[in-house]
Amino acid sequence: MNGTLELNKLKNTRTAYDEWYDLLKLNKDRAQKKGYTTEKAEYLKSILSWSLNTYVMLQDKISKREAKDMRKITYLDLQHADRELTLFTV
Fold first, then answer.
1. pLDDT tens digits along 6-60
2. Rounded-to-10 torsion of CA 1, 26, 58, 13
3. Cys staple from 62: which of 49, 50, 67, 72, with CB 3.0 to 4.6 Å?
4. This prediction's pTM
5. Considering Cα of 22, then 23, then 28, then 31, what sign does the dihedral take?
């Protein structure tokens, strides 16, 4: 029972960056298992970077009423993401 409560607390405190980071880890693991070439890994990194930057650009264009439950990505999150993408190797 206690484990379920802790899991629910974690789900409620997850940020949009946490979701993106999970996608990064998942794709990195898959790329390593499949033995991606450097070129294919760079392409994957560019897609992950593009998706994050697009999310950030569009998050301020949504009305406040619609964005009430939307999780924001901060500038600090972008700095962390940039560092993680730099470390992305296969």
1. 544 555 677 888 888 998 999 999 999 999 998 998 999 999 899 888 888 888 7
2. 20
3. 67
4. 0.69
5. positive
